[in-house]
Specification:
Endonuclease, Chain A, 3-stranded antiparallel β-sheet, Arc Repressor Mutant, subunit A, 2 domains, 10 strands, alpha+beta
Length: 245
């Protein structure tokens, strides 16, 4: 409860708005002078914040001289704050997407055709985006498939629903995920080589490549390199099939 004021400040509330609402929630109905005393502030400092809270519907008022203030149910307050946050987030997202689409239409410069991603989270985020953009095929040798996020797995399953050709090789500790994807229509194999590089090739053009156990992952577009990697995948997949027969 003592941290409520700090938590409200994180929602964008002013210092005195947070403190006033916190005091009213904790101590109940009070006059402005009593609120000021509770938060150790001069009375003049609380009138504007209390009026602002009243205008937003977060505080109720009764009486006139003096007015008495009581906090609205916190559930109502947080619901309104959530709605405000979602509305503002939608507006920000729309503006950012417009700017992003403009620069995508301009096309990348040659030196910007390759990107370095950090950590497993960075790889999963980029992989999820690439899978959603796939038109024809997804080929992957993933020694970290067991740590793929739910978003990645669901994106692959969605691609399968859209008749995208999905072929994936994983390691034994990802067998549960491989079984799930195979049931959804993917072609899967299991390999014991945990030290190989992980990679995905999307539409035989876009490559996501993690070297060994390094945290850095490369994302780039190169059809020649993609072709080499796909050939490596096919060779390895055939070797695994032969080893199992």
């Amino acid at each position: 409860m003592e941290q409520l004021g700090d938590e409200l400040s994180r929602l964008g509330w002013g210092k005195y708005e947070s403190a006033c609402y916190h005091a009213l929630v904790k101590f109940g109905e009070m006059k402005a002078s009593q609120v000021a005393a509770r938060i150790d502030a001069q009375p003049a400092k609380v009138y504007q914040p209390l009026n602002s809270l009243h205008e937003q519907g977060y505080v109720k008022v009764r009486g006139e001289n003096p007015k008495r203030y009581i906090a609205q149910n916190p559930r109502h307050v947080i619901e309104k704050e959530r709605e405000r946050f979602e509305s503002e987030s939608d507006e920000i997202l729309e503006s950012l997407e417009e700017a992003w689409e403009v620069q995508i239409e301009r096309g990348p410069d040659a030196e910007d055709s390759a990107w370095v991603l950090s950590g497993q989270d960075g790889m999963n985020t980029e992989l999820c985006n690439l899978i959603k953009e796939a038109d024809e095929s997804i080929v992957g040798f993933d020694t970290r498939l067991a740590w793929a996020t739910r978003d990645v797995i669901e994106a692959i399953e969605k691609a399968l629903e859209n008749n995208i050709d999905v072929r994936i090789i994983g390691t034994p500790h990802s067998s549960e995920t491989l079984d799930r994807l195979e049931k959804s229509g993917a072609t899967t194999n299991v390999a014991d080589d945990h030290n190989r590089s992980s990679y995905y090739v999307i539409d035989e053009e876009r490559v996501l490549l993690n070297i060994g156990t390094q945290d850095a992952t490369l994302s780039f577009e190169d059809s020649d390199v993609a072709s080499i990697i796909v050939n490596d995948f096919q060779t390895h997949a055939q070797e695994e099939v032969e080893a199992q027969t």
